[in-house]
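## Example pair
The file below holds two records. Each record gives the amino-acid sequence first, followed by its structure token line.
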Amino acid sequence: MRGGWVYIMTNRPNGTLYTGVTSNIGRRAYEHREGLVEGFTKRYGLKRLVYMEFYERITDAIQRESNMKHWPRAWKAQLIVNYNPGWVDLFETLNQ
């Protein structure tokens, strides 16, 4: 079984947030950046990857994403600030 990533996309610091899960963070972040995925992230221009965490089992990542989607926005924002205080786009660091 492959691992999985839980991630958060935004349009700007403290902007609209989207929480997702994927088995391939590089591909998924690229799809969001390029507007290749119809729906919420494209409609709101959520192109900045500001948070990600890896799980050895995709099922654990799916459970974490499900839990996070029920969190208040302030909790997600604090999670991002703790991990990525400048809300910088982490996509640039994926292939380093």
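Second record, same layout:
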Amino acid sequence: MIYGIGTDICDVRRIRASVERHGERFAAKVLADAELAAWRQRSSRWPERGLRYLATRFSAKEAFSKAIGLGMRMPMTWRHCEVANLPTGQPVIVLHGALKQWFEARGLRAHLSVTDESDYAASFCVVEKI
């Protein structure tokens, strides 16, 4: 049974402006530790690729927060929601801390799709009750 659906589109230019204004602090606020390491690696080799990576993660977390019905309220936090990839490349939500406990207590499972183009990143998330 579907618990919730969320979608988000993010303007990569807005993410670029935030990084230019706040530097790495912005990325550190939005990304979990593993994501932050990946962002640094991608940004060092190709800055534009790093920005799109950050934008897709921002968008995916927004879509997930909408699908669970919390928005950006506790226990939903940027850093407790991580977007990882399976060996196949499929994006998955990995939760930590109180958000993980909240999600598991409700018997939920998330399905995620992300995409990006030069100026936009978009995400779609379906959360189901298992």
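Notes on the second record: Helices lie at 12-22, 24-30, 33-45, 47-67, 97-105. The chain has one domain: 2-129.
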